[in-house]
Amino acid sequence: MKNKILVVGSINMDMVVKTAHIPQPGETMLGGVFFMNPGGKGANQAVSVARLGGHAAFIGKIGDDLFGKQSTRLFEQEGIDITGICSDPGTPSGIAMITVDAAGENSIVVAPGANARLQPNDVAAALDKQPDGKILLVQLEIPMETVKYAAEYAREKGLLVILNPAPANDRVAALLPLADIITPNESEAALLSGVQIKDLAGARQAAEQIAARGVKSVIITLGSQGAALLHNGAFLHIPAPLVEAVDTTAAGDVFNGALATALAEGKSLEDAVVFACNAAAIAVTRLGAQSSIPYRNEVPFNIIS
Ligand code: RIB
Fold first, then answer.
1. How far, in Å, is the centroid of ligand 1 from the Cα of 232?
2. Which atom of ligand 1 has the smallest separation from the CA of 166?
3. Which of 38, 58, 100, 158 holds its CA 20 to 30 A away from the CA of 199?
4. pLDDT tens digits for 30-48?
5. Ligand 1 neighbour 141 (Cβ under 6 A)
6. What kind of fold does domain 4-22+32-297 have according to CATH?
7. Are 261 and 52 in contact (CB under 8 A)?
8. Which residues contact 66 (CB under 8 A, 6 or more apart)?
9. Nearest to 231 by CA among 249, 247, 216
10. Domain boundaries, the chain
11. For 57-71, how does the pLDDT look when each residue is reduced to its tens digit (9 = 90+)?
C-alpha cells in the first residue's frame, strides 16, 4: 500500500540551555540546566510521523561521527526507514545551539555541517528506492537546489508535496508552485506574503497572497492560537488546546509530522490540521525537540467535519 511519508531534511544534535531570558547581543549570562537531545527539523518531523502512527522514511546526510551514529540508531528504534541516510566522512553532523527562556520561547543557531552537503543526486538515489511514497515532507535546512529537486521528483511521481518553509529563506518563492501544501509560521508567512500577521484578518490576507503564487493549500501556524487554513478559497481558523508552554522547540515539526500522518491515513485537510494542533500543543508542554514528541495514544483526534 502506498502510504509512506518521505521526509527529506536535516538531522542535528541539539545543545540546549535553559535561561531566564534570551541573551542580548554582547550579553553573557548564567543559565540553568544543559541537555543534549536529537533534533533537526527533518529528523523531528520523521520521528513525529513514526510516533503518531505513520510510516516514515528519512532522507538526509550525517557526518561520520558519534552524533550521526546516535541519531541514526534512534531512528531505527522509532521504526523509521533509514535506507536514505548517507554520510559524508569529511564533515561533522549538524548541530544546533538552543536557548530556551522562562516563557518557553527559544532562539536557535544551526551549524548545518553534513546537512549542507545533501545533494540532489543523494536524494534521487534514496527516492528511487521508495516505491510506496505517498507524501513528500520537506523543509529548508538543506540546500535549496536539493529541496527543489525533491519537490520536482515527488510531483512527477504523483506524491503530495508538503513544504514547511522553515527556517525562513528569501529564495523560497520559487518553490511555491511545486508545493501542494505550505505550512509557514507567522514570520515565515509574513516574509512570503509581505503581510504582517497581527490577527486572523492578517493571516487570511497573507494566506491569500501566498495561494495566489501557486500553492493549493496554505496553512499558517499561529502558535498558541492554533492554525489558519486556506483551502479551495475557503478560510478556516482552527484553535489550539490551551496549554502551559515549557519549550516551543519543535512544535512546528510535530505539527508538520502530524499533518502528514493524518493525510496519509486519508483524513480531510481540516481534520488533519486539528490533529496537528493537538499534537503540537502536547509538544510545547515538554522540554527539547525529539524528547517532546508525543505518541499516537496521547493525541486526541477530535474530528471537526
Ligand atoms: O525546529 C526545531 C529544530 O530546529 C531543532 O531541533 C534544531 O535542531 C533546529 O533544526
1. 31
2. 1
3. 100
4. 999 999 999 999 999 999 9
5. yes
6. UDP-N-acetylmuramoyl-L-alanine:D-glutamate ligase (3.40.1190)
7. yes
8. none
9. 216
10. 4-22+32-297
11. 999 999 999 999 999
